[in-house]
Design brief:
The chain has 71 residues and is of the alpha+beta class. It has one domain (4-68): Alpha-Beta Plaits (2-Layer Sandwich), CATH 3.30.70. Helices cover 21% and strands 25% of the residues. The protein is built from three helices and four strands. Strands 1-4 form a two-stranded antiparallel sheet. The chain has a two-stranded antiparallel ribbon with strand order 2-3. Strand 2 (28-31) and strand 3 (35-38) form a beta hairpin. The structure holds iron/sulfur cluster (SF4) (2 copies). Residues 8, 13-19, 36, 53, 55, 57-58 line the site of one iron/sulfur cluster.
Length: 71
């Protein structure tokens, strides 16, 4: 079973900070004022940041393939 993690598109993020305030796990920060970064160890994949992002640049990705690709 995979876990989803938020993944902001760092090229399109406008660093507005909306996602940072939405995240219940404090998993998002704005890196050097430029773009959002997600701490995948804290992210629970709730999707609140994705829904809130005014630029619609956050996607939720399955991490199963990353960590359990060999099954
Ligand atoms: S999916 Fe939820 S826990 Fe993960 S970064 Fe977005 S708001 Fe935070
Ligand atoms: S809400 Fe969207 S545009 Fe704003 S900082 Fe977060 S990822 Fe970037």
């Amino acid at each position: 079973m995979g876990r989803r993690k938020a993944q902001p598109n760092q090229n399109l993020c406008v660093a507005c900070g909306v996602c940072v305030h939405q995240c219940p796990r404090e998993a998002i920060a704005i890196y050097k004022g430029c773009y959002a970064v997600v701490d995948s160890l804290k992210c629970i994949g709730c999707g609140l940041c994705q829904k809130a992002c005014p630029a619609d640049v956050i996607t939720l990705v399955e991490e199963a393939e990353v960590y359990h690709g060999d099954k």
